[in-house]
Amino acid sequence: MRESFSTAERSAWSTLVDAIEQLSATHSLEQVIDIVRTAARRISGADGVTFVLRDGGLCYYVDEDAIAPLWKGQRFPMSACISGWAMLNKQKAIVPDIYADARIPHDAYRPTFVKSLLMVPVGIENPIAAIGAYWADHHEPDENEVTLFESLARATATAIANVSLEASLRSAAEKASAQAAEIQRAYEQTKRDAEHRLRIEEQLHQAQKMEAVGQLTGGLAHDFNNLLAVIMGNLELLLEDQTAKGQPAKMATAALEAANRGAQLVRHLLAFSRRQPLQPEPISLNGLVTGLHALLERTLGENIAIRTHLADNLWPAIVDPSQVETALINMAVNARDAMPNGGRLTIETGNKRLDDDYIALNPEAVPGDYVMLSVSDTGSGIPPHLLQRVFEPFFTTKPIGKGTGLGLSMIYGFVKQSNGHIKIYSEVGVGTTVRVYLPRAQSVAAAAPAATPASPAPVGHGEMILVVEDRPDVRSVACRQLARLGYRVSDAADANGALRALGSIDRVDLLFTDVVLPDSMSGVDLANEARRLHPSLKVLYTSGFPDAARIGGKFSATDVLLSKPYRIDELARKLRQVLDETR
Questions:
Q1: Which of 36, 289, 336, 510 is most deeply packed, by most CB within 10 A?
Q2: Do 330 and 468 share a domain, yes or no?
Q3: Phi and psi dihedrals of 517, rounded to 5?
């Protein structure tokens, strides 16, 4: 073993050590090639070096450092170059005289300065590159030079493997990061979908509950209407009796007023159940709000400031104006009650289009053009857990005795029956906003004529009225009311009895029948059969059911319905309307 090295040899080994340290810190193949090319030239002292990569079946001369150009950037078949031979045979090639070696393609070297070379493969089991050194004169590398080159080749193989591994790890990390991001996006989407589905299910459950309550209240309204018809009819007959004076008359009047309030309560129930009779027409919400401003100021009091923001070029809405007025007053009163110490009430109108994005979050709504009426207050607000219940009938956040809980439920039913949409927003300590979206109309109706003072109830002229009602108490009251109004009266409990009466009575001028009758024949069926037998017969329908047409049959365009409970003067006017019309 050699005991000392020359200065050149020590410099070469020092260069190799520095190159190995640099290769251990590289992160790209380009850096590896640059370090090896520079170190190989210094180590060998050669006139040129090349770095060759194996590219499939070709030798790719990637880079070089030489006194004159060699083959940088060119590719040759592995069987046609010495670098290919070194990689295929997995051994170094020492060539002192290229023209004396059969492995060398002499024609490829004639244009170059190369006379001698050393080619070392990079990699032991499966060489992936080669490092070559070239001399312009005859040169035979000694053992030290070969050892240096082989050491550099081994370090290069390790560096390339590390770069490849690092690239694989980086790619794997990027792929894992992308997969994680995709999983996160999928999770977030799934979470949004689940939350959306939960909101839809909650809204559907609420809608089903409201529909069930609506059906219940609609059915109750029918029974209440019949009871109120008996109570109100008897009280009116009692008050018209000349013997009813003094304290009994006052008591009857108070009872009649209470019955009227009961009838109003039933109308509220019908509004919630979406079965009240409506008379929609094109109206201007701006005009309606302006017309109610003075009334609202008196109703709310001096400590509530009213602000209005009425949109320019507001579309007309197709809706029952009286119901809109009632709804606006109810919303204003609710707002007042939420601001016991005073505050601000803001009424706003606007043109709104409910698009698919809105419908996705509010599936009970229908896309389209709407006219918005918004009422906002600066009151106490409603807690989130109570907000979804505010449209339920008889539910109220007010103290006991301070509200019936029918205001918002009536508005809800009226809006839904009008093919509109209602939305409530509230924040505790900030206030509440109720937005009502009413269907857009194409034009505004002409102003209605001023109301004329009520005239006395018209009386009969001895016409014969056939009353058909299955409930004896209601039938009895109706017969006595008709007799009081000056009509002759006959009655029947069902359709068959009515047909028998029509066959036995000489003349019947009007059939006053309940829409819903026992057995298989409804009041509408009875009227059709009676008109077939007596074409000139007039008909007036009555019913305590809010949707009498759906239950009792389809009315004709000229049919008239008197809803229960009714006052005697309402009955009188409807009778004369039907009897006096010409067919």
A1: 36
A2: no
A3: -120, 160
113 confidence band (pLDDT: 50, 70, 90):
very high
Domain count, the chain: 3
DSSP 80: G
Question: Per-residue pLDDT for 449 more than 90?
Answer: no
CB 433 within 8 A of CB 445: no
Dist CA 550 CA 223 (whole Å): 17
pLDDT bracket for residue 406 (50, 70, 90): very low
Highest mean pLDDT among 264-268, 308-312, 398-402: 308-312
Q: Is residue 448 part of a domain?
A: no
In this structure, the answer to whether residues 418 and 566 fall within a common structural domain is no
Rounded distance between C-alpha atoms, residue 27 and residue 24, angstroms: 9
For residue 20, the enclosing domain spans 7-169
Decide if pLDDT at 170 tops 90: no
- Tokens, residue 580: 């006096």
Verify that 519 and 428 share a domain, yes or no: no
Using the 3D structure, point to which of 120, 152, 169 is the last residue of a domain.
169
- For β-strands 488-492 and 464-468, DSSP reports them as parallel
For 242-252, the pLDDT digits (tens) are: 555 666 667 77
Which pLDDT belongs to residue 60?
93
What backbone torsions phi and psi does residue 390 show, to the nearest 5 degrees? Answer: -65, -20
- What span, in angstroms and rounded, lies between the C-alpha atoms of 285 and 273? 24
Residues 366, 358: Cα–Cα separation, whole Å = 9
Enumerate residues 6+ apart whose C-beta is below 8 A from 313. Answer: 351
CATH number, domain with residue 504: 3.40.50.2300
Q: Which residues pair with 308 in a beta bridge?
A: 347
Q: Which of 309, 310, 315 is closest to 351 using CA atoms?
A: 315
At 223, is the pLDDT very low, low, confident or very high (cuts 50, 70, 90)?
low
Is the CB of residue 534 less than 8 Å from the CB of residue 451?
A: no
Do both 314 and 382 map to the same domain?
yes
Task: Say whether pLDDT at 325 is over 70.
Answer: yes
The length of the chain in residues reads 583
Greatest Cα pair distance in the chain? 152
Task: State pLDDT tens for residues 68-102.
Answer: 989 999 999 988 899 999 999 999 999 999 898 88
| Cα–Cα distance, 480 to 568 (Å, whole number) | 10
Closest CA to 241 of 480, 488, 510: 480
User: Is the pLDDT confidence value at 451 over 50?
Assistant: no
Q: Residue 182 — φ and ψ, nearest 5°?
A: -65, -40
Q: Using the structure block, give the residue that is written with the tokens 């110490």.
A: 341
Instruction: Provide the pairing of β-strand 58-66 with 75-77.
Output: antiparallel
